[in-house]
């Protein structure tokens, strides 16, 4: 059973979400402030967090920015902050989805289902870790163990960034449009959300350092392409990528 933390200062909202999620088979714990959920996370990490932005004891955006430094479980903002700039900021901070109030409880449950389905499909389709090379640089990617290293240094990725990187790596050398990334990794197909893809790719490149833009190429006007070469396809390297 998946465990979900719901954090919202408004009792009606968090209890309504709790009721619908429990009816769908999830284990749900609710919290009214950021301090309480932080104590809970120190004891047990959830499979998913649903989080408001505005709290008497702090700001949800600032909280997630700090949380993502040590945890990679998915987060959905469920909030009354509805401006486009807020939605973009939420995704920049590593959110996997952003739901604006007022919302349909049924739609929220469907979004939660979709998020877990993407994660489960990603794991079930796993075929083993892979090693890639580019201009003397070496990248290792193992989705199940959440190991992503570049030249020996481990790179932390959010849940959304993992899905994007996995999709790009599995389609190495192929142009992937922003729309394809949205539909495959986020279940979105609206042009207005293209900026979300660009934001995630920008963050991924920054984490990868100077080689980031070389590993993930921009195809201007269309999308992105993973440029690495699999070591399993190089002459004399037939088994190296399978170690």
UniProtKB/TrEMBL annotation:
Concerning SUPFAM superfamilies, the annotation shows: C-terminal effector domain of the bipartite response regulators (SSF46894), CheY-like (SSF52172)
Q: Where is the Response regulatory domain?
A: 3-116
Entry-linked CDD domains: trans_reg_C
Question: Which keywords, in A-to-Z order, does the entry hold?
Answer: DNA-binding, Phosphoprotein, Transcription, Transcription regulation, Two-component regulatory system
- Where does the OmpR/PhoB-type domain start and stop, copy by copy? 129-228
Q: Which domain of life is it from?
A: Bacteria
The ranges the UniProt entry gives for DNA binding are 129-228
Q: InterPro entries, per this entry?
A: CheY-like_superfamily, OmpR/PhoB-type_DNA-bd, Sig_transdc_resp-reg_C-effctor, Sig_transdc_resp-reg_receiver, WalR-like, WH-like_DNA-bd_sf
Record bears the keyword Phosphoprotein: yes
The molecular function terms in GO held by this entry are:
phosphorelay response regulator activity; transcription cis-regulatory region binding
- Gene Ontology biological process: regulation of DNA-templated transcription
Q: GO CC terms on record?
A: cytosol; protein-DNA complex
Spell out the Pfam families in the cross-references: Response_reg, Trans_reg_C
Question: SMART domains from the xrefs?
Answer: REC, Trans_reg_C
PANTHER family linked to this entry: REGULATOR OF RPOS, TWO-COMPONENT RESPONSE REGULATOR ORR33
This one is known as: DNA-binding response regulator
